[in-house]
Design a protein that fits this description.
The structure holds 2 protein chains of 2 kinds. Chain A is mainly alpha-helical. Chain A has a domain at 279-477. Helix content of chain A is 71%, strand content 2%. Chain A is built from 20 helices and 2 strands. Chain A has a two-stranded antiparallel sheet. Chain A is globular. The relative contact order of chain A is 0.10. By secondary structure, chain B is mostly helical. Chain B has helices at 2-22, 27-47, 70-100, 119-124. In chain B, α1 packs antiparallel against α2 (27-47) and α2 (27-47) packs antiparallel against α3 (70-100). The longest helix of chain B is centred in the middle third of the chain and has 31 residues, at 70-100. Chain B is elongated, with a radius of gyration of 20 Å. The model of chain B is unreliable at 113-129 (pLDDT under 50). Classes of the chains: A mainly alpha, B mainly alpha.
Chain lengths: 509, 129
């Protein structure tokens, strides 16, 4: 078979090979390890783009591992949504890697590059798999790698936050396994497409168990997505992580969102009988609350990185407001906003780091300090990132929020819900603008007396945030194409019968 | 029926104990609680293929009825993962205690209070500088 036939598994295989190679090379030659990491990220980007090219016409690729047929073997499924997430991960990883290497953050510990590759392995696997237990395994892979990356650089603050992060996620994993056990006991399968067909046949006496399993599963995904009231772990963790790592972690909450988007329509969709759309009514209130909490946090945050962490919570909430509509229009708007908010959050973390590196002891605290080198330029970068994160024109945040607002207003059956959504989204945008303006003017505008901290040797660390902002500009310029792709991906996700027909071949009706 | 009752109550007791310990303030108790919860989860996963006694999970010429082999494979995976995670969280809790001088999960430096019942232990370990 040619390489093209194995395209669907390349995003999993490439980092799996690169991680041990980087581990071996890093011991003696750092340059070689860095080279391997970059080569892997570029190859991931190329394979993700090739995969996107293959599936953008609407075909769904099902890759059977070991050629075992679908409900029995593990299957990887590549459709438009999976390809979108893969491209996003590859782009983000490249930006984070550039920043880590340029700022030499990767030299502060032993195993940055291998852990980084394992993190990508877990992320890509989670986006591709069509099997629920396999999804659990890839979640664990990405979590184990993220524990290592989060603690990279060490120090008491990271260890403190690390213990909480690990404990919370261990509890999440246990709940995930309980939900999986219940679903397997009820349906006798772990393949998502197969389970979508089997849930309709669950006996009436077991409907209660099925509902509990659905809610447990979605609450685990909500924990990963940092949806209120399960968001408390995020801010402490992200705010103390190495900035390049925090930029990569911007995609981690989106894994939870992705899992909700993937599993709910496919397993608990129209065909699920009494358990159809069980998690749906809880999603909108939780999303509204986390949007409010996130942007309130942006308003009161004491440092740039803390502010960026709260912006992650708020933007995930906004995204889930759109997802909670469960229609092609609102989900498409949500997917466009997903791509935007990931890049915007990464840009915020990177700009915070660039400022912190120049401010000496003030780091990224939201208080005025002595004038520092490159204040104007970095201030402009921060302003652009803040404009993107809050959703002001001309960057893609504005387009994303506009799409969400219009699609939500058109939803049938959202009579009382859409004014709430409009109020929360528009109100939090205002709060976010004020919050960013307050901290931004304190850091970049006001100065106090005192000796200016020494300027860093090079300005190369501006590359990564500038790259993230350039991508946001490209996302705004190409908004027509991007939102068209997002709408097509949403329509494909909401039509699980087609993907089930591809995955299960002869068994599907 | 009796086996089901036994396994179900064992899982229930383990989860109850695990939740109680996981909500305590000190990292060691939380780690113990997580271990209990993961034991319960493994038992639960094992039972998700129905409780069958005295039947083989893999093909055999002489028998016609089998137990479900898939949950056994799932449990094996889950055990390996939770084992690695538990080892990691033990080391992490230890490092955190040694670097921050506190074994509280929220990282606050709280003097060992007597109502916790751990006062002697805390001092004996040299928890307070």
């Amino acid at each position: 078979m040619s390489l093209a036939a194995h395209l669907a598994i390349l995003p999993v295989v490439i980092p799996a090979l690169a991680a041990p190679l980087a581990l071996l090379a890093m011991r003696r030659r750092r340059g070689l390890g860095v080279g391997i990491a970059f080569a892997s990220c570029l190859a991931l980007l190329a394979s993700a783009l090739a995969l996107m090219g293959q599936v953008s016409g609407g075909t769904i690729l099902a890759y059977e591992l070991g050629a075992w047929p679908a409900p029995f073997g593990i299957v990887l499924v590549a459709d438009r949504l999976a390809a979108l997430m893969l491209v996003l991960t590859a782009v983000l990883s490249l930006i984070a890697l550039i920043h880590a290497v340029v700022t030499r953050a990767d030299a502060k510990g032993w195993h940055f590059h291998p852990l980084f590759q394992f993190q990508l392995l877990g992320l890509n696997g989670a986006f591709l798999t069509g099997d629920l237990f396999n999804l659990f395994v890839f979640f664990e892979v990405l979590l184990i790698a993220s524990y290592g990356l989060m603690l990279h650089g060490q120090g008491p603050a990271r260890l403190k936050a690390g213990v909480q992060y690990v404990v919370v996620n261990l509890v999440g994993s246990a709940v995930f396994l309980i939900a999986l056990g219940m679903l397997y006991a009820l349906t006798g399968t772990l393949n998502m497409a197969d389970m979508g067909l089997k849930v309709a046949e669950v006996a009436p006496a077991d409907q209660g168990l099925l509902r509990i399993a659905a809610l447990l599963l979605v609450s685990v995904f909500a924990l990963k997505a940092a949806l209120a009231p399960l968001h408390l772990w995020l801010v402490r963790t992200y705010a103390v992580s190495t900035p390049a790592v925090a930029a990569l972690f911007a995609i981690m909450t989106k894994v939870g969102v992705y899992a909700i988007i993937r599993v709910v329509p496919q397993v608990f969709g129209e065909g699920a009988g009494a358990a159809a759309w069980v998690p749906a009514p809880y999603l909108l209130p939780a999303a509204l609350v986390s949007t409010g909490i996130g942007f309130a946090g942006v308003f009161v945050a004491r440092s740039l990185s803390e502010q960026a962490s709260y912006a992650v919570v708020g933007s995930t909430g906004t995204l889930l407001i759109a997802v909670a509509g469960w229609s092609a229009g609102s989900l498409g708007a949500g997917l466009y906003y997903l791509a935007h908010s990931t890049l915007a959050a990464a840009a915020l973390f990177l700009v915070a780091d660039v400022a912190a590196r120049r401010r000496g002891d003030y780091r990224d605290a939201g208080t005025p300090g002595p004038a520092f080198a490159g204040r104007g330029g970095i201030g402009l970068l921060f302003m652009a990132a803040a404009i993107a994160a809050t959703g002001l024109p001309p960057l893609s945040g504005f387009i994303g929020k506009l799409l969400i607002l219009t699609s939500v207003a058109a939803l049938p059956g959202w009579g009382w819900a859409w004014p709430w959504s409009w109020g929360v989204i528009l109100g939090t945008t205002l709060i976010g603008v004020i919050g960013f303006a307050r901290v931004g003017s304190a850091v970049f505008w006001k100065t106090t007396e005192g000796e200016a901290p020494a300027a860093p040797a090079s300005r190369a660390d501006l590359i990564a945030p500038a790259l993230a902002l350039a991508l946001l500009a490209a996302l705004s310029a190409g908004a027509g194409w991007a939102s068209g792709y997002a709408n097509a991906a949403a329509a494909q996700v909401l039509d699980p019968a087609r993907s089930a027909a591809v995955v299960l071949k002869e068994r599907a009706p | 029926m009796t086996y089901e009752f036994l396994v179900a109550s064992a899982i229930g007791v383990l989860v109850a104990g695990g939740i109680y310990l996981a909500l305590r303030a000190r990292t060691f108790q939380v780690v113990l609680g997580l271990t209990l919860i993961s034991h319960a989860v493994n038992l639960f996963l094992f039972a998700s293929g129905r409780l069958v006694i005295g039947r083989p999970p893999i093909w055999d010429k002489t028998v016609s009825a089998y137990t479900d082999p898939l949950p056994q494979a799932l449990v094996l995976t889950a055990i390996v993962i939770t084992f690695g995670m538990t080892a990691f969280v033990v080391i992490l809790a230890l490092r955190s205690f040694l670097e921050t001088g506190s074994d509280h999960v929220d990282g606050d430096r709280v003097p060992c209070d007597t109502q916790d019942g751990m006062a002697e232990d805390g001092r004996a370990k040299g928890g307070e500088p």
